[in-house]
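hey
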């Protein structure tokens, strides 16, 4: 059996009131050939992620790793500058191996509920993710644009917290479908 590690912040770790993180639960059902390990930690930035990548990711010798950070890096109250963010993603991708890395752009937020994050700022972080994917040749999911292009996308961001950042079932359905599609492209 192959191993998929989902590496990220609270968007990766989110349980939405269930026993297991929603993302891993959905991916486990969609990807029967993979053991799915959730390495999401709420509040993490890319700086935090680099401090735990050995223990939480590389330790499992994964076949593929999704990397979803940026919502905290872009937040006014935690701010990791765009240059440092990009450098951190480059380090992660090189440690994991570009052929095994699936970089995912941070999603937009509902700005009416999010005082510390703006979509114009998150779009810059999403662009940095795309640049790292292009520079390294790693796999890439344009989650920001996928979500932002949906009319009334804010409905995807309604979860238990309803804070305009952490999404509910519909958001996890979309994210897991995009990951599953990308993995089937990689495998074919």
């Amino acid at each position: 059996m192959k191993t998929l590690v989902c590496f990220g912040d609270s968007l990766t770790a989110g349980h939405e009131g269930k026993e297991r993180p929603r993302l891993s639960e959905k991916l486990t059902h969609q990807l029967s050939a993979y053991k799915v390990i959730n390495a999401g930690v709420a509040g993490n930035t890319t700086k935090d992620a680099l401090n735990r990548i050995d223990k939480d990711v590389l330790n499992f010798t994964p076949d593929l790793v999704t990397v979803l950070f940026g919502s905290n890096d872009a937040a006014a109250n935690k701010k990791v500058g765009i240059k440092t963010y990009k450098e951190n993603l480059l380090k992660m991708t090189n440690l994991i191996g570009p052929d095994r890395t699936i970089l995912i752009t941070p999603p937009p937020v509902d700005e009416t509920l999010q005082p510390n994050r703006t979509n114009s700022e998150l779009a810059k972080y999403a662009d940095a993710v795309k640049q790292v994917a292009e520079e390294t040749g790693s796999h890439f999911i344009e989650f920001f644009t996928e979500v932002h292009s949906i009319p009334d996308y804010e409905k995807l961001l309604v979860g238990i917290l309803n804070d305009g950042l952490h999404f509910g079932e519909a958001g996890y359905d979309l994210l897991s479908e995009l990951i599953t599609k990308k993995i089937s492209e990689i495998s074919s």
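The CA atoms of residues 99 and 138 lie 6 Å apart. The beta strands are 2-8, 34-40, 64-68, 101-104, 139-141.
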